[in-house]
Write a structure and sequence with these properties.
766 residues, alpha/beta, eight-stranded mixed sheet, 29 strands, binds phosphoenolpyruvate, binds magnesium ion
Length: 766
């Protein structure tokens, strides 16, 4: 059968119809109001390529070296052409049109639904193409375009990189009645972090894309399911809506003035939606995240997925706040000590663990670190990351909250204490210690009681991921910082709205070679691929959420430790020296290789990648970088790009920076604070003077946000201070667009943002 109706499909048909269609089939079988649809099954695609005899040619044209961008582009073009230009058997055509007519001869939505039994995420095996407003005459062409979407450059590259056979991936196509929604949104059938019996709905005008993509701040409604009482109604200022454009594409439009602040859902609609939500949850037996739409007064369910973010340890009786604090440690300050504390430093990655000490020096073989050990070292280096992943905890003599050890351990979810002075001398190999990454303490022996035991379990990366933070609905976006590609999945599981800072220096430093030496030894293409591969894994994990990738910014003292480092300048104060955009503009050849890596990622289809320039001084820096972007083929008008505001000069020249045409700025408060206060961020002697909340720093930031709002330039923060509640309060009050926090702080920041936004709303109506 080339086509199947939704009521003929169940969860068991996954391999034939793909995940999307299987889930719609289940909802239909449960009697839920799903817009009617039929599915062109994966067998149909398979028989199309086999019956027409194009299969062998298809799989042989895509058998290319995907690192060769020209070969890849050509392969994608040829494969797609082959599908699009080969006529489908007449029987398929007839069957499709008959099903179309049966549905009511109205324009339809056509969506691909990839199937691949062993792939972790079939959605990346084939692009998720959607065509709206498809007429009868265009139906077969659109179905073939969905089939052809299995062979975009990005899909071919992905399968090649992952070692998946092109032949093992099939694709089904869903042809569905269009729901030209007047209002739409999402609904959590139970509270998404506590699992409490509270339904939470978000609603906006028009098609659901605006809510799902985060383009609009939706209304928010909270309903107690037991009493059916609507407990909270928050009406947002809804500036944009998605509607169906004339050519069938979804387009973003301004909401008419009179509807911007109008409440979207009536109490009656809320109750109908909650009732539908109850049925969906009953059907699956677990809380669901439901996409819905209202069209001509009827409620429709468009999609449903289980909520994976409920914290099992949470008190389901509470309605909102995170029950356990992730304990964002206070950067730089030493914590109070009890009598039996042996050592203290800065708690830089939360959690309490016990393990055997492994003293690691630079020359040591890292194999000596076994699963569950506590690494004790002077300072971690990028080549230690695999051992850090195995470790239960990390202690370093040196470093602060923004050191390599602190950043990497937080991203890996491994408790860490940094800056513990003489830990490598005072601790012995094999000794049992307990470290507390919140308090910043290291104690001899096993100090963990039962309650702590639970906590330490939470601190292990695996468990932490399951209990990942959930996203409360906030108008201000909350993103996450990533520095090592290994943390991509864990970061994505936080529910963050994207990556606000992806540092690429860790990817380069972990090669143990300076960029120049790497290129000398392996060639330019390999260097570009090194960056592409690191960024790609993060862009993939977050797609389509945006990932802001920063060009190289490592001080020369870090490069000096690598092979080729002897050619690096020896600087009196590297923090004030040859780093960030200054170095890049001084070495345009190397910088252009980085830019070519961006261009390559765009070519591969990673249109969620944004480019960010570090440590700019003024517009001159930006304009020079922009012209180099153009030289490698990046069109700054087409791509989202921006700069870090982390020098006082850049803050003071913000108007000129906005005039360069950038899309966003992001505060690097680690640097902005050190340069504004003249306090070296790595100098322990003045650590007590390092204060990101100093009025001088806040004043600069406030001015930048104000000017950027005038220019419609988005503002963000990605420095360590983003995890501090006071900074969150200040920024949300001032109207920042997004906040990017460390992985372990995302949940707290989301709640803090929500609290401030609610206060602002309350103040505005009082
Ligand atoms: C900053 O300066 O705040 C920042 C995020 O950049 P880095 O810490 O990498 O200098
Ligand atoms: Mg910086």
């Amino acid at each position: 059968m080339p086509t199947l109706w939704l009521d003929e499909i169940g969860a068991d048909d996954l391999a034939r119809v793909g995940g999307k269609a299987a889930s719609l089939g289940e909802l239909t079988a449960a009697g839920l109001p799903v817009p009617s649809a039929f599915v062109v099954t994966a067998d149909t695609y398979r028989s199309f390529i086999e019956a027409t005899g194009i299969d062998d040619e298809l799989f042989s044209v895509v058998d290319v070296d995907s690192d060769d961008s020209h070969a890849l582009a050509e392969a994608a073009e040829q494969a797609q052409e082959l599908i699009l230009e080969t006529d489908a058997p007449e029987s398929v055509r007839e069957d499709l049109l008959a099903a179309y007519d049966e549905m009511g001869d109205e324009d339809v939505a056509v969506r691909s639904s990839a199937t691949a039994e062993d792939l972790p995420d079939a959605s990346f095996a084939g692009q998720q193409d959607t065509y709206l407003n498809v007429s009868r005459a265009d139906l077969l062409r659109r179905v073939k375009e969905c089939w052809a979407s299995l062979f975009t450059q990005r899909a071919i590259y992905y399968r090649n990189e992952q070692g998946f056979d092109h032949d093992m991936v099939d694709i089904a196509v869903v042809v569905q009645q269009m729901v030209d929604a007047e209002k739409s949104g999402v609904m959590f059938t139970s509270h998404p972090s506590t699992g409490a019996d509270t339904a939470i709905l978000e609603a906006a005008w028009g098609l659901g894309e605006a809510v799902v993509s985060g383009a609009v701040s939706p209304d928010n409604y909270v309903v107690d399911r037991a009493t059916e009482e609507i407990e909270e109604v928050t009406v947002a200022d809804k500036k944009v809506m998605c509607v169906r454009g004339e050519d069938g594409e979804t387009v973003e439009r301004s909401v008419p003035e009179e509807k911007r602040n109008e409440r979207v859902l009536s109490p009656e609609e809320i109750h109908r939606l909650v009732e539908v939500g109850d049925r969906v949850e009953d059907h699956y037996g677990t809380p669901q995240d439901v996409e819905w739409a209202i069209y001509e007064g009827e409620v429709y369910v468009l999609q449903s997925r289980p909520i994976t973010t409920i914290d099992e340890g949470a008190d389901a009786g509470t309605s909102g706040e995170s029950p356990e604090s992730t304990g964002v440690a206070d950067g730089g300050s030493m914590q109070s000590q009890s009598d039996d504390v042996r050592l203290s430093g800065i708690g830089s990655s939360p959690g309490k663990v016990t393990g055997e000490v492994r003293i690691v020096t630079k020359l040591d073989n890292l194999d000596k670190v076994e699963e569950g050990d506590i690494i004790v070292t002077e300072m971690t280096t990028p080549d230690m990351v695999p051992a850090m992943k195995r470790a239960a905890g990390i202690v370093t003599d040196q470093g602060g909250m923004t050191s390599h050890a602190a950043i990497v351990s937080r991203e890996l979810g491994v408790p860490a204490v940094v800056g513990a002075d003489d830990a490598t001398e005072r601790l012995r190999d094999g000794q049992i210690v307990t470290i507390d990454g919140d308090m910043g303490t290291v104690e001899q022996g096993t100090e963990i009681d039962e309650a702590d035991d639970e906590q330490s379990e939470l601190a292990t990366p695996e468990v932490d991921q399951q209990h990942s933070p959930v996203k409360p609905m906030t108008g201000t976006e909350v993103k996450v910082n990533v520095s090592i590609p290994e943390a991509a999945e864990r970061a994505a599981a936080t529910g963050a709205d994207g990556v606000g800072l992806l540092r690429i220096e860790h990817m380069i430093l972990s090669t143990d070679k300076t960029p120049a030496r790497y290129v000398e030894d392996h060639g330019e293409r390999a260097y570009i691929e090194e960056i592409v591969e690191g960024v790609r894994s993060v862009a993939e994990a977050f797609y389509p959420r945006p990932v802001r990738v920063r060009t190289l910014d490592a001080p020369s003292d870090e490069f000096r430790q690598l092979q080729g480092g002897e050619d690096e300048p020896s600087e009196h104060n590297p923090m004030l020296g040859y780093r960030g955009i200054r170095r890049s503009l001084d070495r345009p050849g190397e910088f252009k290789l980085e830019l070519r890596a961006f261009e390559r990622l765009y070519e591969l289809g990673y249109d969620n990648v944004e480019l960010m320039l570090p440590l700019v001084t003024d517009a001159e820096d930006v304009l020079r970088a922009k012209s180099l972007m153009r030289e490698v083929g990046i069109d700054p008008e087409k791509r989202d790009w921006g700069v870090m505001v982390e020098t006082p000069a850049s803050a003071l020249c913000i108007e000129d920076l906005c005039e360069t045409g950038l899309d966003f700025v992001s505060f690097g408060t680690n640097d902005l604070t050190q340069y504004t206060l003249a306090v070296d961020r790595n100098n322990g002697n003045v650590a007590d003077r390092f204060d990101e909340l100093h009025p001088a720093v806040l004043d600069l930031m406030g001015q930048v946000i104000g000017t950027c709002r005038d220019y419609d330039v988005a503002t963000s923060i990605c420095g360590q201070a983003a995890s501090k509640p006071e900074m969150v309060q200040f920024l949300v009050d001032d109207g920042v667009t997004s906040i990017s926090a460390n992985i372990d702080a995302v949940r707290d920041v989301q709640h803090e943002v929500k609290r401030v936004e609610q206060r602002l709303l309350l103040e505005s109506v009082r």
